[in-house]
């Protein structure tokens, strides 16, 4: 008895670059969304399973390459600090989401049209 042929599916990823250097993609999108949910870079990093220092380095690199702040940081104290996304970061997330949806729909249409 022959094994059934599995259905082919197309997968794609999209990211943004500045001068050939990656600046924003799915991983960094996840970091910002988790930061938005938790109000903490540390909590977002833990949720992703990466060190705080790595998360902070990602944020710092994105801000430098994009040329605008993504995170408002309030230093911790007895009650702890808080981090929030800037309006520009929220807009970036919204636009990236729309870009991904349009991109995936276009790729899926092309895939179907090619009749793999």
Automatic annotation (TrEMBL):
<dbReference type="Pfam" id="PF00126">
    <property type="entry name" value="HTH_1"/>
</dbReference>
<dbReference type="InterPro" id="IPR000847">
    <property type="entry name" value="LysR_HTH_N"/>
</dbReference>
<feature type="domain" description="HTH lysR-type">
    <location>
        <begin position="33"/>
        <end position="88"/>
    </location>
</feature>
<dbReference type="InterPro" id="IPR051815">
    <property type="entry name" value="Molybdate_resp_trans_reg"/>
</dbReference>
<protein>
    <submittedName>
        <fullName>LysR family transcriptional regulator</fullName>
    </submittedName>
</protein>
């Amino acid at each position: 008895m022959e094994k059934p042929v599995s259905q082919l599916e197309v997968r794609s990823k999209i990211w943004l670059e500045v001068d050939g250097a990656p600046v924003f993609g799915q991983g960094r999108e996840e970091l910002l969304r988790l930061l938005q949910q938790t109000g903490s870079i540390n909590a977002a990093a833990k949720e992703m399973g990466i060190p705080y220092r790595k998360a902070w380095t990602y944020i710092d690199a994105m801000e430098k390459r994009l040329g605008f702040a993504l995170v408002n940081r309030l230093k911790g104290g007895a009650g702890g600090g808080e981090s929030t996304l800037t309006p520009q970061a929220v807009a970036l997330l919204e636009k990236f989401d729309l870009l991904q949806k349009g991109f995936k729909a276009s790729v899926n249409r092309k895939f179907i049209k090619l009749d793999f």
